[in-house]
Design a protein that fits this description.
The protein is α/β, with parallel strands linked by helices and about 325 residues long. It is built from 10 helices and 14 strands. Strands 2-1-3-4-5-10 form a 6-stranded parallel beta sheet, sandwiched between helices. It has a 3-stranded parallel beta sheet with strand order 12-7-14, covered by helices on one side. Strand 4, helix 5 and strand 5 form a beta-alpha-beta unit. The chain is globular and about 60 Å long. The two termini are about 35 Å apart.
Length: about 325
């Protein structure tokens, strides 16, 4: 890409998409094409094709997707597989038909097998059974990766695929029923602090380990890949180190300033036992993250305090890691 490239950022109002916009603007990219859901329904094939035929898009960053934590996946599995299959199929196919030069598709570390060898190398995809709690989402996203690779092989379409670790940061969703683990804990600890609750109860044992990447670092990695990576092989994106969910909870409790204790609901699922990715392929291209976990949590909580709605009354229970 050059600074005059016409770039479509799909999902620009979401956590990742909004961070990508910030990074592109910072880098001097100015011809950005943006559409919210009311302007372009990405599940509508005819509308998506007409959009690409009309707009002269050169590059696409596909950050639009239906996402959520364990509870959202359990309750809305049909929507997770249907909507994501429609969005990615329509965008990838229309982009190729319209002559787009390059497309970046975002997967997730949760697509890897539940018991993949740690750290998880890119070759582990589809090498074993996946985590049941997010299977509809994972199946849809794996289909998107396969579609990108098939279009590259058959049509020569320059579609690349990135596999982010767990993301967090400004613009995240903090609703207890639908959020991922980290923002959900921020909300629960904050609400418990405001209400004077003596205990916050976490889902599961707290022993699963997760790798967390600040969303602005993810955006920086996306721009780096668009500028420097052209392989059909998927590439992991993360900091290369993980933390136990129980230890993460302690960091969030300290960040929020919650004085109470932690409890565990052992009847709730843990999800993947561990998800640490091998990021050597990405690091070999010269990219490194810049924001550490403690600093990222502080920035995220500051954003939450400035933008969050009044806390809703709810029991102090946080879902397990996604």
């Amino acid at each position: 890409m050059d600074r005059n490239s016409r770039i479509f950022v799909a999902g620009h109002r979401g956590l990742v998409g909004s961070a990508i916009l910030r990074r592109l603007a910072e880098a001097g990219y100015t011809d950005l094409v943006l559409r919210d859901r009311s302007q372009l329904d990405l599940t509508d094939q005819a509308a998506v094709r007409a959009f690409f035929d009309r707009e002269g898009i050169e590059h696409v960053i596909l950050a639009a997707a239906k996402v959520g934590g364990i509870l959202a996946n359990e309750r809305s599995g049909a929507e997770f597989i249907r909507d994501n299959l429609l969005i990615q199929t329509n965008v990838i196919d229309a982009a190729w038909r319209a002559g787009v030069k390059k497309l970046l598709f975002l997967g997730s570390s949760c697509l890897y097998p539940k018991h993949a060898e740690q750290p998880i190398r890119e070759e582990a995809l589809l090498s074993g059974p996946m985590e049941p709690s997010n299977k509809p989402y994972a199946v849809a996203k794996i289909a998107g990766i396969t579609m990108c690779q098939a279009y590259r092989k058959q049509y020569g379409f320059n579609a690349i695929c990135a596999m982010p670790s767990n993301l967090y940061g400004p613009g995240d969703h903090f609703e207890p029923e639908t959020s991922h683990a980290l923002p959900g804990m921020i909300r629960r600890f904050h609400d418990a602090k405001m209400a004077g609750d003596p205990t916050v109860t976490l889902w599961g044992t707290g022993t699963p380990r997760r790798e967390f990447l600040y969303v602005d670092d993810m955006a920086d990695a996306c721009l780096h890949l668009m500028e420097h990576y052209d392989s059909g092989e998927i590439v992991n994106v993360g900091p290369g180190e993980d933390i136990a969910i129980g230890d993460l909870a302690c960091l969030i409790r300290e960040t929020v300033g919650y004085p109470g204790t932690l409890g565990h609901d052992l009847d709730k699922p843990d999800g993947h036992p561990r998800k640490l990715m091998d990021v050597s392929r990405l690091f070999a291209t010269g990219w490194r993250p810049k924001v550490g976990l403690e600093e990222g949590l502080r920035r995220t909580y500051d954003w939450f305090l400035e933008h969050a709605a009044p806390p809703a009354p709810a029991p102090s229970v946080t879902q397990a890691a996604e």
